[in-house]
């Protein structure tokens, strides 16, 4: 196709990064006691489930996993085409007084995280909220940083980061795509950037 497209993380790398984040969560949360993982739709959901699986493999601890749809909390809602609402699912026991770790694939402007925090306000009052991301690509527009980062990838604003996960895309891979990336890839990444 001739589009600039560089693989930043292979499938092996993605698995390694998820393992590392799982270990970091265990270290920083005293064994993940009272931790709830909330995956931000779309790709944060399978990542949250993978983290829970790895933590269970490492420590034998079963973490509650939920999903968070932030569609109605986006600050660009009126500028976007209507889309179907996603699914929010809070694990039994709720969020009050617990350590909630939001999980997403890419941290960019910080606007997705802001929307997720707004959504959390309507769902409960966690004791602590932390953020785990597979990739931090920089270019923050809000004072937000991740507590757990799989990989920092310096990018230009004309580039996009595309995360592919087996549960959704059929393979695990992270690609850095240039300004001339394929239309399909650009559509997904533009959505991610707009929501980030």
TrEMBL record:
Record function comment: Regulates the transcription of the pyrimidine nucleotide (pyr) operon in response to exogenous pyrimidines.
Gene name of this polypeptide: pyrR
Name of the molecule in the record: Bifunctional protein PyrR
Domain Phosphoribosyltransferase, residue spans: 15-154
Renumbered ranges of motif PRPP-binding: 100-112
Similarity comment: Belongs to the purine/pyrimidine phosphoribosyltransferase family. PyrR subfamily.
Catalysed reactions listed for this entry: UMP + diphosphate = 5-phospho-alpha-D-ribose 1-diphosphate + uracil
InterPro entries: PRTase-like, PRTase_dom, PyrR, PyrR_bifunctional
Biological process (GO), any one: regulation of DNA-templated transcription
Keyword Hydrolase: no
Keyword Protein transport among record annotations: no
E.C. no: 2.4.2.9
Group of enzyme by EC: transferase
Keywords assigned by UniProt, alphabetized: Glycosyltransferase, Transcription, Transcription regulation, Transferase
GO molecular-function terms, A-Z: uracil phosphoribosyltransferase activity
Highest taxon of source: Bacteria
């Amino acid at each position: 196709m001739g589009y600039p497209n560089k693989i930043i993380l292979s499938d092996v790398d993605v698995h390694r990064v998820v393992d590392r984040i799982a270990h970091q969560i265990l270290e920083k949360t005293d064994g993940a006691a009272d931790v709830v993982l909330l995956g931000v739709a779309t790709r944060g959901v399978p990542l949250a489930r993978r983290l829970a699986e790895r933590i269970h493999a490492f420590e034998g601890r079963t973490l509650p996993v939920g999903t968070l749809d932030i569609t109605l909390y986006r600050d660009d809602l009126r500028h976007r085409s209507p889309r179907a609402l996603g699914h929010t699912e809070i694990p039994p026991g709720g969020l009050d007084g617990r350590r909630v770790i939001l999980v997403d694939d890419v941290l960019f402007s910080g606007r997705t995280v802001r929307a997720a925090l707004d959504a959390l306000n309507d769902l409960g009052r966690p004791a602590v909220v932390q953020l785990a991301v597979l990739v931090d690509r920089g270019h923050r527009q809000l004072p937000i940083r991740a507590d757990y980062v799989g990989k920092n990838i310096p990018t230009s604003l004309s580039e996009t980061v595309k995360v592919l996960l087996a549960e959704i895309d059929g393979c695990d891979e992270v690609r850095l795509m240039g300004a001339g990336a394929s239309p399909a890839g650009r559509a997904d990444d533009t959505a991610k950037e707009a929501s980030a």
